[in-house]
Automatic annotation (TrEMBL):
Extent of Basic residues compositional bias: 233-252
GO molecular function, a single term: methyltransferase activity
Naturally occurring in which organism (per UniProt): Methylocella silvestris (strain DSM 15510 / CIP 108128 / LMG 27833 / NCIMB 13906 / BL2)
Gene Ontology BP, a term: methylation
Official protein name in the record: Methyltransferase type 12
Lineage: Bacteria, Pseudomonadati, Pseudomonadota, Alphaproteobacteria, Hyphomicrobiales
Positions of the UniProt region annotated as Disordered: 218-252
Gene3D superfamilies listed in its UniProt record: Vaccinia Virus protein VP39
UniProt keyword Calcium present: no
Methyltransferase domain segment(s): 38-147
Domain of life: Bacteria
InterPro entries per record: CFA/CMAS, Methyltranfer_dom, SAM-dependent_MTases_sf
Amino acid sequence: MTNPYDLVRYPNWPVSETHPASLNTFASLYGRPAAQLSACRVLEIGCGEGVNLMSMAVGAPKSEFVGIDLAEAPVEMGRTMARAAGLANVTLLARDLCEDTSDLGEFDYIIAHGVYAWVPAVVQRALMQVAAERLRPDGLFFVSYNALPGCRLRQALRDLMLSRAQGVSDPIERLAIAREALARFAQTWSADDPFQNALIGEARDILERPRARAIPRRTGRDLCAAARERSGRRGSRRRPHLSLRRKTKPQF
């Protein structure tokens, strides 16, 4: 089965909350030691094109940054960008999270941003298992997730979009149909009604995001320029969770 993320480009940008310097600051506030950015190993689960890791790697040439993602196309695009930028300390791998990751070694920081809430339970368990096994004793694990009831409105709109695109196999076409349906429904809602106004706000947030595009074949220079253009963009309502406890094996 083809991975949709190999066909549709998912936006990548630096996420400041996941930066080792930020995580180190949080650890210091809790009285915990943590590795310095200048000499650490960082693993990002669900790295996509690796733009987030590259933004860290530029300022820490002696540190090592490893990203894994199930989709091969964005990983290959990220490798092209890393080579073009001369970032020898960035390694991007197309890997299944449910497979053995012991060859990756241990890390001072493990990041999973925008992954946990969107994958099946078996992958969620695998993600936590990888974090438990690959995190160093004094390491830090950052995982973001969507929490209820705050994300219920977004979930409702997602259900609406899925129902309208049901039966359409092409991912680009599915997204176009879903966006059109959401825009049409949003026009019928009244800003005078508190609930409908909240739905309008969520719909606007979704519709203002970049439209889905097929993954292009571009040069490393083009990809680097695109990454710089996106680097200032931010925006996430995911709830971050920072684990400051020492490494323990999770119980399932």
